[in-house]
């Protein structure tokens, strides 16, 4: 498998986590979003939407991280990232979608670039914009974790919800979003920081990461 992604992209990050949790081997190809590499002719020929990630697997190119995560669960079911019960699976998917559909799209690079270039937002304004949506989403997610979690978002093992949450926590830290009101979310952040699959997926550990 070949994963085309960007080291700091939340969608690429969540895909790396899932691949690592499944114990799969994959090659990485960096796509520098800041330089516009996602709009190159070569990349658009592979992924016409011009977004990351794209995963080459089984002779196909898969795009959109929620679809990739679902494919991974179907094609490589062990260890499972969804519960066995149908209602529980729906609850995990809802928690993942809370991040992937309601929080992340409003603070990704495309949106923040539009805020700066079209509306003249400075860094403080873009941070406030991101924090507005992260905080609202985390308030709901914290309550769901209280209801369903036992160390992770749902139960005592990582699920697709954690694959989505941990990169969003990383993003919250980047945008200086206060997290004091979310002890369960911060506890998952601590769990992930000590888990090999999450550690290996961290943006700082990627081959295309900025030098520090």
Please explain how this structure is put together.
By secondary structure, the protein is α+β, with helices and mostly antiparallel strands. The chain folds into two domains: 2-79, Glutaredoxin (3-Layer(aba) Sandwich); 86-198, Glutathione S-transferase Yfyf (Class Pi), Chain A, domain 2 (Up-down Bundle). 55% of the residues lie in helices and 8% in strands. It contains nine helices and four strands. Strands 2-1-3-4 form a four-stranded mixed sheet, covered by helices on one side. α1 (10-21) packs antiparallel against α7 (160-174) and α7 packs across α8 (183-193). The relative contact order is 0.15.
Map the helices and strands.
Blueprint: E1 2-5, H1 10-21, E2 27-30, H2 41-46, E3 54-57, E4 60-63, H3 65-75, H4 86-103, H5 109-119, H6 123-148, H7 160-174, H8 183-193, H9 196-201
Parallel strand pairs: 1-2
Antiparallel strand pairs: 1-3, 3-4
